[in-house]
Design brief:
It holds the Pfam family DUF4577. The chain is built from 3 helices and no strands. It has about 130 residues and is mostly helical. It has a domain of about 70 residues.
């Protein structure tokens, strides 16, 4: 029994004819090898002329979408960092106000202690007993 040869003897044709025959054989091989689910992708490839325009188009679209999301993320991050810096400055100002008020209250308390001591000395010297 003779095994059929996979080689096909092509008559002498022009280069374009050879490429067409090879392309047809490749498509036939893909149809035999690929399952039915992948037939849809083969049809798309034939519709685009096999140049991969769909893949390139979706890749460009994905890159554009990634770039837009990246820019939006940077803008949002910048806004959040600015807000945090604003809150830190506001908190520092409030802390400065509170510390200055505490210092003034401390001075007032020291003065009140001095006045209290003077009154106690005066009362003790005047001879008023409890």
């Amino acid at each position: 029994m003779e095994r059929p040869s996979l080689e096909i003897n092509l008559p002498d044709t022009h280069e374009e004819g050879k490429l067409y025959v090879v392309d047809s054989l490749n498509n036939l091989n893909k149809l035999n090898v690929c399952p039915d689910e992948s037939q849809h992708s083969l049809d798309e490839e034939e519709n685009t002329g096999g140049t991969g325009e769909n893949i390139a188009g979706s890749n460009t679209g994905n890159q554009c979408l990634f770039f837009i999301i990246f820019i939006l993320t940077l803008i949002i991050t910048l806004a959040l960092v600015s807000f945090v810096i604003f809150l830190i400055i506001q908190t520092r100002n409030k802390m400065d106000q509170i510390s200055s008020r505490l210092l003034s209250e401390k001075k007032n308390i020291e003065e009140l202690k001095k006045i209290n001591n003077i009154l106690l000395k005066h009362l003790n010297q005047s001879g008023i007993k409890d």
